[in-house]
What does this fold into?
Amino acid sequence: MAKKIEVMITAFRDGFQSVYGARVFTNDFMPAVEATRDAGIRHFEAGGGARYQALYFYSNEDAFDMMDTFREKAGPDANLQTLARGINVVALDSQPRDIIDLHAKLFKKHGMTTIRNFDALNDVNNLIDSGRSITDHGLNHEVCVTMMALPPGCEGAHDPAFYAKTLDDILEAEIPFTSVCFKDASGTAYPATIYETVKAARKRLPEGTRLSYHTHDTAGTGVICYQAAIEAGIDQIDLSMAPCSGGTCQPDVASMWHALRGGDYSLDLDIDKIMVAEEVFKDCMKDYFMPPEAKATEPMIPWSPMPGGALTANTQMMRDNGIMDRYPEVIAAMGEVVRLGGFGTSVTPVSQFYFQQAFNNVIFGKWEKFAEGYGKMVLGYFGKTPVPPDAEIVQRAAEKMGLEPTTLSPLDMDEDNPEKGVEPAKLKLEGEGLPVTDENIFIVAACGAKGISFLKGEMKTNVRKIEKEAPAATGTIPDNLTVTVGGEKFAVQFNGDKATVNGRSYDVSVTEGEDAEGRSAPAPSGGGGAVTGVPAPMPGAVFEIKKAVGDSVEEGETVIVLEAMKMEMAIAAPCAGRVADILVKKGDQVTAGQVLANLD
It folds into this structure.
């Protein structure tokens, strides 16, 4: 009789992240959760990872409410699993011990069963406190070794010996766990490495230890990688369901079931019932925009190991910012960024650091602007990288960022940081007049200023669905638009017979059929005098407006902060002066070169 291989369904967490950039409304997919439950599935990936922040940032929903609803629909006996990033928990930045503990407490409170816990650097010191908190609060702790293949020509880590050493370090640190996962977010680890790694783990771990394997199909090798893991002795694999399967996601349940037919192994599920659930899931997601790159096999991924879960999240942001045409350049630039950065595994948050730095190298010139996460990583602020980063890159990061390299514990630094922890979050809530609850404290700690904005009802929904065709408008002009004349961009706003152009008011009239050639430009209605614009250097969203009309500013002083690709960018005054106009508001999407404010 064929040996049964257990399955966790990842469609409703990793699937959403890998296809839709994690931007999915809770009520839209709950019928599929119920259908999958009715098909006999009892192990679901139900939250955490990017699906935590994304609910606040894009769906304008509470992640704790989503977890409560998931538990209700999946049933009381379901094993609901979430993903955590060691000392980062579900944030992109590291957290102090009280927030790490609060994470485990709240996820248990809101119905979760298991937390899969990894560190992108495979620095075991970053797993000790989180592993203990997860266990202490009565959750199953699935500790991870993170995997990827190094770009061709690189060596020094990410081979079976390296993974065995990481596992030895976990055992030596006496981190409590109920199972072990080998997690390859980029889908680049190849079968020989996977087989030898799982075999070595079986020799080191107590008999009966549960082992799981996780990969993506981005490079087109997901099924054969799972076969290698199964033959080496893995107990569980992660699979997804259409439409969130294949490509950047996990292989589909049906694909893996078919690959194992007639052999020594089979999946522990009823494939006919699963196929019924897939049809329900497809119907749930029919109105969502499917990025074409989410379903594609990308042969170049081993050279630029971009995880499926981060690939579409970043392409969605590039679409939002109108710069999707630069995506091939950014992916091509990732190889060098990985080679020189110390070989942290390409999984969140390090995958985001890699992408942001590649993005900066393309947009601003190579190594001219360091992404905060990448720069801090090579300088040691997130722990020890698998190999030392390139010495010249470390020196350049220190110079550009004004930071010295460190070997201090990130946890100890966070403990000493007055801006981090439960008490600073409480003060922020009190200062905004918001309820001080454990949930709100964690939302603020994990989501920062956006967490406050969510709790105040200020966040905008940004979920990409298929646009329905609207009736064609005739004889109308948009209220807001950007006009480019001779390469210079002008922000234009219409209000009746008035138009505001880069903050200056003009009288306008439009007469159908008249030739405007030779007409003189209208004069400003008031304010006169020379002004200096403060332009956006790249597309993005207005994150914060630091100055108000009438404020004095010095050259180089921050006027507005933009956010693009999860990076904050301070826009400085090009000269000293007074703020004459602020032409944008918080949350506005702006284009490269658009004037954001005027100085006089």
